[in-house]
Each structure stands twice: as structure tokens, then as C-alpha cells.
Design brief:
single chain; alpha+beta; FAD/NAD(P)-binding domain; D-Amino Acid Oxidase, Chain A, domain 2; 8-stranded mixed β-sheet; 11 helices; globular; binds 3,4-dihydroxybenzoic acid; FAD-bd
Length: 388
Amino acid sequence: MRTQVAIVGAGPAGLLLSHLLHLQGIESIVLELRSRADIEATIRAGVLEQGSMDILNESGVGERMRREGALHHGFEFAFGGERHRIDLTELTGRAITVYPQHEVIIDLVAARLAAGGDLRFEVSEVALHDIDTSTPSVTFVQGGEAQRIDADFVIGADGFHGVSRPMFPPGTREDFQRVYPFGWFGILVESAPSSDELIYAQHERGFALVSTRSPTVQRLYFQCDPHDKVEHWSDDRIWSELHARLEHNDGWKLKEGKIFQKGIIGMRSFVCAPMRHGRLFLAGDAAHIVPPTGAKGMNLAISDVRILAGALDAFYKQGTEDGLNGYSEAALKRVWRAEYFSWWMTRLLHTFADASPFERRIQRAELENVVASRAMRTALAENYVGAF
Ligand code: DHB
């Protein structure tokens, strides 16, 4: 079979690109290893910057997000026994929306299918061919049958462990990486939110984060050993750790509830440059990873494909490759700023086991500076809402 753009991966990057291309009259086929039910149920990120919301709204898939997402105008930093509010809207005029990634996926899959889009789930043995030529192709197996798509372009939106990035020939890309010596233990809890806004807590026992997924589900995280096992953490042990890190003397209490999911995520910063080789273009986690602090991952995926959709439109409508040639540089500019911000938030808020007493006091002094200085709060807020 033939299409214009073959997209590997039905995450936010792949699905949104397919949707944006469709609106521009460009055909695509999306391949995904997992089932539709699986991708629509896996709970991942949850925060959308205003710019991400704008893209979803402008492209006609924002209706449920506007109705069900929770608009947040600020968040809190907690440290040293006190909580400090960062007023995003007052500082930047912008806000963020807490709307889970799998809900974005549900909305995009529905939009693609309603428009007759070609999404193929549960495919296997995906392989990319001839990406150095103007006639690349993708082979895969679906329902036991070998298939092949000939395309003008292949988009690798298949995540950090996908098959696309390794297709760059040796010496054609540089990888930048930092792996952090801790992970996040994440839980989902049946209960109303403990707080109207997110709370990022720095504590000597380790970082903790109070977030939410819906009016009846809380999302809570705490810093842990990345090699720890979920089985080592009973519900009681989790609650006592969270209470210890989050509660101070101001009477605020963390709400408990039934824990219905537990998981440990590793933390890394990673960038592959360039994000393009020949007719293969990478988007989202296939090209870059941020640690979760600051919630930039899904937003970067969305901004990559906004640039890519524009570049592909210019290619098909005006016959110019300028946008495609500039894709990597344009995307990486934003990626590196988000890498910086995610690294900075991570460093500011986590407990590093090997930090000297001096470094621990410098970390506290930096936090004090951030909450005391309007200029520093503004820089933080601009990065957080993605005001660039
Ligand atoms: C969430 C994750 C983050 O990394 C963050 O900074 C805020 C919220 C979340 O999953 O809810």
C-alpha cells in the first residue's frame, strides 16, 4: 500500500501529527504495537501547557479537554515546613490544564477514526527501509500477514525504545544523556484532590508531588530508589512516607483513599541531535526524554509535531523543503530549553544522596530565592506554562 506519510507510534505525537496532516489534506497511516484499549488506558503524563491546549482547540479536538480538564492558575512549592504559591496567571497571563495524556489519546483516536483515518493497532516486526532515499518504506506484520507501506516520509514517533532512532546510520547523530540516581514512585488513589493546586515538596527524605487526574482520582509521587520494587511498598508504608514529606504545621492534610495503581519510573534527560535523517523525522520521546519534574514531555511531543505538520504542508503545497530542512533546529531549540527547565526543577527539588552539607544548603538557598524574588518566580512560571 501507499501513503504520503507513514507514522510509527500512536502516542500523542503520532496521533496528533496524523490529525493535523488530515486537516491539511495530507494522507497518513499510523502503526502501533499495542492495542487501542491498552493505549487508551495507560496512565502517563497529565499537564498541558497553554500552547498545547491551543493546538488541540484550534485543530478541533479540545472539546472534552475544555469540559473535563482542570485549569490551574498556580501551584505550590513546599519546603522547610512552609508552602509558597507560584501564581502562574498573575506572573505570565497564562495557565495550565491537568488533563491526562490517555484522555488526549482517546480524543485523537476518536477524531482520526471519525475522519476515516488509517490507524493500525497490534502490529509487530515494524522495520524502516530506504530512509536515505525519496522512496522510504515501512514493513510490518498485522494479523499474521506481512505488509508494506511505501511513503514519501517516515515519522518515528515510537518513543524512547522504538525502532526509528536506531535507524540513523552510525555517526549521523549525537546522543546527550543524563541518568538521575533516583526514580518516582507513582500511585493513583481513589479520593477527591487533597489540594486545589499541585504541590511540589522538597524534603530531606526526598521529593514528593501532589497532583490529580480527576475530581475523584489523585495522582501522588515520591522520590525513590529507581531499583526499588513496588512490592516493597505496602499501602501503610506509602502513606507514612507521603505524610512525612508533605505535611507541615499549617494544618493541611493529605487525603488518603484506596491505592489502585503503583509504579516506579526511572528519570533521565536525553536528546538525540539532529532529529532527522534523510526522509526519517523523529518526534516526541523517540528524540528526547525529560525527567517528569515540570511535566514537559507531552508538551514537547505536541510542539514537535506542530512544527513538522507545518513543514510537511509547505512541502506538499509549495514544493519547498525549507521547513523540513529547518525542522530539527527549530524543534531542538525548544527541546533544549525544556531540557534545561526539567533538569533545573529536578535538581532544585530532589534529595541527592551524594550532596555535601554545603550543596544541601545551597539548594535550600536557591528555593528561598525563587519564592522570594518576583523575577525568579516569573522565570519559573514562564518556563512552566511554556510562554515562549
Ligand atoms: C504530573 C507530573 C509531573 O511531572 C508534574 O510536574 C506535574 C504533574 C502528573 O503526572 O500529574
